[in-house]
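Take a careful look at the protein record below. Let me know whether the C-alpha cells fit the sequence:
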Amino acid sequence: MMHFGLALSGALLLSVTGVLLWVYSKRRTAVDSFTIEAVPDNNDEVLRYIELKLKERGLPQSKSEKALLASGEIFDNIASYAYAEKGLLKIEIFAKNKQIFITFKDNGKAYNPLEQKEPDLSASTEERPIGGLGIFLVKKLTDSVQYERKQGFNILTIGLRKE
C-alpha cells in the first residue's frame, strides 16, 4: 500500500490504497517578493516594481492605478515613521481567490494604522488634526485592508478584486 502527496499548482494529489484523490487547496499562488530600504528616495522604485507585478498578474489598469496610489501612501508612511534611522521593507504580491494582495512588512515601531479614527471630512483643513487621511484613502481605494503585528513585524496587506 503506497501513500504519497504531491503538490501541483495549488492542488494536492493523494493516494490512499491505490485510489487517487484530487484535493483543491485555496492556498495563494506564487509570491513575488521585493526587499528595499524604507527611505523616501526609494518610492519610485517601489511603485515601478508593484506596477510591473500587477500588470504581470492581469490586474485591470483602473484597479492598478488605485493600488499604486494606496501603495505610495503606505510606503511613504513606513519610510517616514517606522524607523528612527533606516530599516528594510519587504513587499510581497500574490493572488488568491480572484484577488491580488500586496503585503508591506517592516520591523519598525509597532503601529496599526487601522486603529486611526476616521477623519472628520466636514471640518476645515485648519480644524482637522494632522494624520489619518492616508489610511482613509487606502481604505477607499482598495477592496480590503488588514493589519497584524507578528514576531516583531508590522504586516499591512491590501487586496483588490481582479474584476
